[in-house]
Design brief:
Elements: H1 8-12, H2 35-56, H3 60-66
Length: 71
């Protein structure tokens, strides 16, 4: 997962998923650098988990029993 598909690490990867979000503050956002990328990444990964839950028919209550709260 990257915002830069031409990065050295992306070039070494077998699979690259590009997250189209800016890594630096600039026009169009007032958020600190990388915040928007992290937010989009969180939403993307949340959708991956929800899709897997649906495909594998795993109920949310089953996952909650295994969830660790590290706070």
């Amino acid at each position: 997962l990257t915002a830069n598909p031409k990065s050295p690490l992306a070039k070494l990867s077998h699979l690259v998923i590009t997250i189209p979000a800016p890594l630096e503050s600039g026009r169009g956002t007032r958020q600190p650098a990388r915040s928007l990328f992290e937010q989009v990444l969180f939403l993307y990964l949340d959708s991956v988990v929800l899709s897997a839950m649906h495909e594998l028919r795993i109920a949310g209550r089953r996952l909650r029993r295994r969830h660790a709260n590290l706070e």
